[in-house]
Design goal:
five-stranded parallel β-barrel; globular; mainly beta; Pectate Lyase C-like; 8% helix
């Protein structure tokens, strides 16, 4: 795969040297006021008609509405260049998707340079709300939740495209997923900086049913998942995705497969991630819509002030009889520090606090196991869900187990302040823990648990080698809980700190005592 992509981009570079134009030649003005979309589009169209080449954005602030990239075009932002999105929602209307830069069924195009692409998300959201209040923009959900994704805008939206290079640029402040790639193939994203905390749903990079992708040397700071792979169609999937040497900060998850998982994910390789100040999981693998996850290899993750280390979940949100499958997962060399408080407290747009579902009213002294509600809906009746620190977890469903998982060289440090007065679910009631089969997958989805380190349920074939959970503080719960686990192999699995006995609680477990490497 590496050799193929190198050859592609070498040929694309030659292809893109046919013609070079500067948008100023077409009348573009760097006055931070003029909408230059028509000038930039004319430059792109001319270069395409000439057989391909480069459209240069020089130093200066150039405002633009939506523009469409074409085959054979390199959009190059010179040092000091700012391609600034219009703050008027009307300037994002096009035939493809409401986004600043769009492309559909195009090939061999790139966005390069040392400049900035700024979506002006805060200012744009003001205009979106103004139009919604006026009734000139229609959205059924905006009053009860927030404006939907079709109302808000991406920075990039590319669909059914091939041979894409994005390199060197800084991308800022979308009102929706920052960069959205749908059914694209042969993509390289390298040395890109994404800073987007202007609004919710600011996923940094979303790959939906994409193939042959490399994401390397990037810095991503977003108000939702930093890097997220999704699958939107039952007959499609993500395949051959390589992510390496990235620094990630997120008010959701750092690296995630799912939540949308109708088709699936296979041959996913992740290396050398640094994660910090992240609300949810450092690594989240979620198949909950009938799709599959298989052949995932994750190594070398260092995370601090992050809500959860590893979350692997097989669920069943779909209404048909298809069940998801999750198998052949290898995760190694992971070191995570989990705080007692909210790790994204410094975010402008924080992840929502957990709440009881609006129809549920907790009763003092009554044992209850429910999946907390973590949406940002405007519902004053939903009561805050108080909880102790949540463990990492690997979980399937009864009769539909997660298969063949290997966790190796993992160290998780929890800053716990567990207290039965905050919440309490006793160990002897472990079989009453909700399956949360239809709920949104998050590491908090099982609610309060009688375990603080690792929770494992409905798994066939699990190896844990050199796994340690450590505690700074106190906790009244056990460290590991295994329930309905077949072919479990444990080697040097331990805990440190004030923890309940037994350290490892097992029920309906078959173990392997001698495991080949």
């Amino acid at each position: 795969m590496k050799r193929f992509l190198f050859l592609f981009f070498l040929s694309a570079s030659v292809y893109a040297q046919h013609k070079t134009v500067n948008i100023v030649q077409y009348g573009a003005k760097a006055d931070a006021v003029t909408n230059n979309a028509s000038f930039i589009q004319k430059a792109i169209d001319d270069v395409t008609a000439a057989g391909g080449g480069t459209v240069v954005i020089p130093a200066g602030v150039f405002v633009t509405g939506s523009i469409e990239l074409k085959s054979g075009v390199e959009l190059h932002l010179q040092k000091g260049a700012v391609l600034q999105g219009s703050t008027l929602r009307k300037d994002y209307e096009n035939k493809i998707h409401p986004a600043l830069i769009v492309a559909s069924a195009k090939q061999h195009f790139s966005i390069t340079g040392n400049g900035i692409i700024d979506g002006k998300g805060r200012e744009l959201m003001k205009d979106i709300f103004k139009r919604l209040e006026e009734g000139t923009l229609i959205d059924k959900e905006w009053k009860t939740k927030r404006p939907t994704e079709g109302t808000r805008t991406n920075i990039f939206f590319f669909e059914d495209c091939a041979n894409i290079l994005v390199k060197g640029v800084t991308i800022k402040d979308a009102t929706n997923w920052v960069t959205h790639y749908e059914r694209c193939r042969n993509i390289s994203i390298d040395s890109v900086k994404i800073e987007s905390v202007a609004y919710w749903n600011n996923d940094g990079i979303d790959m939906v049913d994409c193939k042959s992708v490399r994401i390397t040397n990037c810095y991503i700071n977003t108000a939702d998942d930093a890097i997220c792979l999704k699958s939107a169609k039952e007959d499609d999937y993500c395949d051959s995705i390589y992510v390496s040497n990235c620094i990630l900060r997120s008010s959701a998850n750092a690296f995630k497969l799912g939540t949308a998982s109708k088709g699936g994910f296979k041959n996913i390789t992740v290396r050398n991630l640094v994660v910090y100040d992240t609300y949810r999981s450092a690594v989240a693998l979620e198949a909950v819509d009938g799709g599959f996850i298989e052949n995932v290899d994750v190594r070398n993750i260092a995370a601090r002030n992050t809500g959860n280390a590893v979350f692997i979940k097989l669920g069943h949100r779909n209404n048909d009889k298809r069940y998801s499958t999750v198998k052949n997962i290898y995760i190694s060399n992971v070191k995570v520090e989990v705080p007692a408080g909210k790790p994204d407290a410094a975010y402008e747009m924080q992840g929502p606090l957990l709440r009881y579902p609006p129809t549920v009213k907790p009763t003092d002294g009554k044992l209850i196991s429910i999946s907390p509600w973590n949406h940002s809906y405007k519902d004053s009746a939903a009561i805050i869900y108080q909880h102790n620190v949540f463990p990492s977890s690997v979980s399937g469903l009864p009769g539909h187990a997660v298969e063949n998982v290997k966790l190796e060289n993992i160290e998780i440090l929890y800053y716990t302040k567990a207290d039965k007065k905050i919440n309490y679910f006793p160990l002897d009631s472990f079989q009453l823990i909700t399956e949360a089969e239809k709920d949104y997958p998050e590491f908090s989805m099982f609610g309060e648990l009688p375990v603080w380190g690792f929770y494992v349920r409905h798994v066939n074939g699990l190896q844990m080698k050199n796994v340690s959970v450590k505690m700074k503080g106190t906790d009244f719960r056990t460290a590991y809980l295994f329930n309905d686990v077949k072919d479990l192999y444990l080697q040097k699995v331990n805990s440190e700190g004030s923890t309940a006995k037994p350290q490892l609680f097992k029920h309906d477990v078959t173990e392997i005592t001698n495991q080949k490497k």
